[in-house]
Design brief:
Layout (H helix, E strand, L loop, with lengths): L2 E5 L2 E4 L4 E8 L8 E6 L6 E6 L5 E3 L7 E6 L4 E6 L8 E7 L4 E2 L3 E6 L1
Parallel strand pairs: 2-11
Antiparallel strand pairs: 1-3, 3-8, 4-5, 4-9, 5-6, 7-8, 9-10, 9-11
Length: 113
């Protein structure tokens, strides 16, 4: 059974930081091409970042320069470091194995002004 579990969400004030983690268990293959998405209340899910099997990293324009994606292969974990958080970053953040088409349940991030 392949499972993705996010953690690290919480409530912070604007300008603060959080680091999200996504642990992939059950398959080393599924961890190699990962995406972060977020969904705010009443809005569609949107792409946040990716790190693929070659190490290529990309970000949505709205988070570029503030968020950083990385991975620790030995820990089967992908991270999303979020700095300079804004109220509009408030959302449920989920990771996805793009190779296996599997989602985690998400972790809530709330940024207050």
């Amino acid at each position: 059974l392949v499972e993705l579990v996010e953690s690290g969400g919480g409530s912070v004030q604007a300008g603060g930081s959080l680091r999200l983690s996504c642990v992939v268990s059950g398959s080393t293959r599924c961890r190699d091409d990962m995406r972060w998405y977020r969904q705010a209340p009443g809005k569609e899910r949107e792409f946040v970042s990716l790190i693929d099997f070659s190490g290529r990293i990309d970000y949505a324009g709205s988070v570029k320069g503030r968020f950083t994606t990385s991975r620790d292969t030995a820990k089967n974990t992908v991270y999303l470091q979020m700095n300079s958080l804004k109220p509009e970053d408030t959302a449920m953040y989920s990771c996805k194995s793009n190779r296996c088409g599997i989602w985690g349940r998400g972790t809530q991030v709330t940024v207050s002004s």
